Amino acid sequence: MDTGSGNEMVDVPPGRVMLSDRRTQRSWPVEVAPFRMSVFPVTQLLYVQVTGRRPSTGQGDRLPVEGVSWWDAVRFCNALSRREGLTPAYHLGADDDVAEWDASADGYRLPTEAEWEHACRAGTTGPRYGRLDDIAWYRVTSKERIHPVGGKQANPWGLYDMLGNAWDWCWDVYDAEVYGSYRVLRGGGWSDEQWSCRASVRRRSHPTFRIDDVSFRLARSGSTSNG
């Protein structure tokens, strides 16, 4: 159990993950390069420190920030990068119409869904990295509310709240041919049943939507050992 509230990060080793989609019955392998992932979802404290705003329904410094759109999340990544003297990862249009990822940038960004699933699994092979009640706030354990970060057990790589508590926005478009600009959500939330809180589950939402069980976590390319 941990009580952190900043943007602490851990190195995630390279690997290979098999993504799958229940709707299309399709599976596809993705190679994941080493990167860094935030230990916790972005907290309300960090969000207000960077943006000056508290958009969340439930209020608390150590609660995951929620009520944030995908566009809010990528703008936050750029703002935090600038604050820390890093190169922003995203080139954004003025009207929430264009987002381009500069893969060479050292700044903060959203994980891809392959990075997210690889980090969530943390070398495990089952649907979850531990017993659900021990690792996640979900419908059975949450008492119908979001909880402070770090309140359940971390996965083997030291990442908390990868399942349950709040869904995480990912960089990827879900299915452009069917859903247009909808982006991928991963991880399950405090109001979800247990079947949603699995490493492989994919959800989608429009990038402008703000929902009270959707947050995000930070990634950076590379690792501490290689720059």
TrEMBL record:
InterPro entries: CTDL_fold, Sulfatase_Mod_Factor_Kinase, SUMF_dom, SUMF_sf. Pfam families: FGE-sulfatase. Residues 7-220 form the Sulfatase-modifying factor enzyme-like domain. GO terms for molecular function: formylglycine-generating oxidase activity. This is Formylglycine-generating enzyme family protein. It comes from Streptomyces diacarni.
